[in-house]
Design a protein that fits this description.
This protein is an alpha+beta fold. Strands 3-7-6-5-4 form a five-stranded antiparallel sheet, sandwiched between helices. It has a two-stranded antiparallel ribbon with strand order 1-2. It has a single domain, classed as Nuclease A inhibitor-like (Nuia). The protein is elongated and about 80 Å long. It is built from six helices and seven strands. Helix 3 packs antiparallel against helix 6. Helix content is 25%, strand content 24%. About 5% of the residues have low confidence. InterPro entries: NuiA-like. Pfam families: NuiA_2. This is Uu.00g072690.m01.CDS01.
Length: 169
């Protein structure tokens, strides 16, 4: 019969992670199928940081809103079309990306994302706000909603806003 200490040592060893001490491969956003939401070193507007802090998009999987801040040198001409937007977020195939542009009022018919829409409008200083519905993979069960506007004009312009994953079964 083993002592209590011997039995605990046995249990501890049995419950150890078998890959402990081995190098783990780093996973990139591309491997996870994530789209680019912020440029490296980008300064996300404070209104967006605050609005996305505790906000979730309600669907089959309630997912948090994430701030968006991407360089958009053509901000003077307004918001990007579907293919330009796909390129900005580093979609693997911008020409055939399943992207649908929606009016914010049609996207938020119940008014439950008013704080997000207000923060995006504030960050863009009243510029037009648009919602991009981006399908993730085939079948369209997982989609991302990107609520964005432009900030600034010309070479320093940015596309700012928030995005959230939705599972629509």
């Amino acid at each position: 019969m083993a002592s209590d200490d011997d039995y605990m040592a046995f249990l501890d060893k049995a419950n150890q992670d078998p890959s402990e001490g081995q190098a783990k491969p780093q996973s990139s956003d591309k491997q996870k199928g994530e789209f680019k939401a912020t440029d490296d070193g980008a300064a996300v507007p404070a209104a967006l940081k605050e609005a996305t802090k505790d906000s979730f998009y309600v669907s089959d999987a309630d997912e948090p809103f994430v701030p968006v801040c991407l360089a958009w040198d053509e901000g003077g001409k307004g918001l990007p079309d579907e293919e330009e937007f796909a390129s900005l977020i580093h979609h693997p195939d911008p020409a055939s990306a399943e992207i649908e542009i929606q009016d914010p009022a049609d996207w938020d018919t119940q008014g439950q994302y008013r704080a997000i829409l207000d923060a995006v409008t504030k960050a863009g200083k009243g510029n037009d706000v648009r919602v991009y519905r981006v399908a993730k993979g085939k079948g369209g069960v997982k989609v991302e909603y990107w609520v964005v506007t432009t900030e600034g004009k010309g070479a320093g312009a940015k596309l700012v806003g928030a995005k959230a994953l939705a599972v629509e079964s």
